[in-house]
């Protein structure tokens, strides 16, 4: 596969020089060849991170959520309490922080 002539330099893979696969194209290919929904795959991956008690900030980075409320659906309540405790400066006052 040769690089797409219209792809900008930032839209190319650094090691191969080929154009990156865009979200829309990835969604179509996953649906057509694997019967998967890219949005559901994205949600499932973020849910697994939350179940593994990964901090909210890291989940936000992976999901590209800018607002913590949007990413909170993936996080267990214990982790949310810890994040709240850290944000108001009372780390250690919750059972999960001791």
From the structure above, extract its key features.
98 residues, mainly alpha, 2 domains, 51% helix, Tyr recombinase domain-containing protein, DNA_brk_join_enz
Distance between the termini: 55 Å
**What is the percent of helical residues?**
40-55%
Gyration radius (Cα, Å) is: 19 Å
Please summarize the sheet with the most strands. none
The domain count comes to 2
Principal-axis shape: elongated
Number of strands: 0
Mean pLDDT: 75
Q: Which spans of ≥5 residues are poorly predicted at pLDDT below 50? A: 93-98
Structural class: mainly alpha
Number of helices: 5
Quaternary class: single chain
- Kindly estimate the percentage of residues that lie in beta strands according to DSSP: under 5%
Provide the succession of SSEs. Answer: HHHHH
InterPro entries: DNA_brk_join_enz
Protein name: Tyr recombinase domain-containing protein
3D structure, described in words:
This protein folds into two domains: 1-36, no CATH class; 38-98, no CATH class. The chain is built from five helices and no strands. It is mainly α and 98 residues long. Mean pLDDT is 75; it is low at 93-98. The chain has helices at 23-34, 38-51, 56-63, 68-71, 77-88.
Write the layout of secondary structure elements.
Layout lengths: L22 H12 L3 H14 L4 H8 L4 H4 L5 H12 L10
What's this model, at a glance?
By secondary structure, this protein is mainly α. It is built from 5 helices and no strands. Helix 2 (38-51) runs antiparallel to helix 3.
């Amino acid at each position: 596969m040769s690089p797409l002539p219209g792809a900008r330099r930032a839209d190319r893979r650094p090691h191969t020089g080929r154009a990156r696969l865009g979200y829309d194209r990835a969604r179509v290919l996953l649906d057509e060849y694997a019967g998967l929904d890219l949005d559901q795959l994205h949600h499932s991956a973020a849910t697994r991170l939350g179940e593994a008690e990964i901090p909210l900030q890291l989940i936000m980075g992976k999901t590209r959520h800018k607002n913590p409320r949007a990413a909170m659906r993936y996080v267990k309540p214990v982790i949310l309490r810890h994040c709240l405790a850290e944000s108001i400066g009372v780390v250690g006052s919750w059972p999960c922080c001791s």
